[in-house]
Amino acid sequence: MSTEFDELERRLAERIRIERERRGWSLADLSTRSGVSRAMISKIEREESSPTAALLGRLSAAFGVTLSQLLASAEGGGGQLARLAEQERWIDPATGFQRRALTPPAPGGGPLELVWGDLPAGAEVAYPAAAYRMIGDQQILVVEGTLHFHQGTALYAMAAGDCLRLGPPEDCVFANPGPGPCRYVVAIVRRDP
User: Fold this and answer.
1) Segments in the chain forming alpha helices (H)
2) How distant is the alpha carbon of residue 60 from its chain centre?
3) Is residue 78 over pLDDT 50?
4) Do the beta carbons of residue 93 and residue 125 sit within 8 Å?
5) Is residue 68 within 8 Å of residue 101, measured between CB atoms?
6) Is the pTM of this model over 0.85?
7) Are 142 and 167 in contact (CB under 8 A)?
8) What percent of the chain has pLDDT over 90?
């Protein structure tokens, strides 16, 4: 077990293993469903590798949960108030993208999630369409900087104050052309099961 893993990464590795085992899936089953190599999934579960945001998007889609739900189940917490100092921050090891859940956790999950994203200049994160199939409505509000959001073949160049409602699920990319960081809030309303 690597000593470089922080507590959130440990809980995330455990959550991925629990979600896989709860479904009775082998590593090969999850690999087939997600398109992530069996070796990589094994490394993540053994805490030998930190998953990237793109990889987590593929795993969450295979599990049939949103990326936010997967991360929130690892983050824990509780109560009605999510204070800034108590909001756990997850950092994508590949891009430096930082994510934190703004919404206080609700028992069984609530229908609305607010997520803060902080994307460094020049970074981009891609998610497959399958990562969005359980989302009823999703909007992105840029707070600071510039965001180039690619959804399918469409490109939306967004500046501070711009808000975009996403269309039907398609592959998408969050990209920051720079020169400074891009900070945004994503509002997610989940579909009824």
Assistant:
1) 7-22, 27-34, 38-45, 53-63, 67-75
2) 8
3) yes
4) no
5) yes
6) no
7) no
8) 42
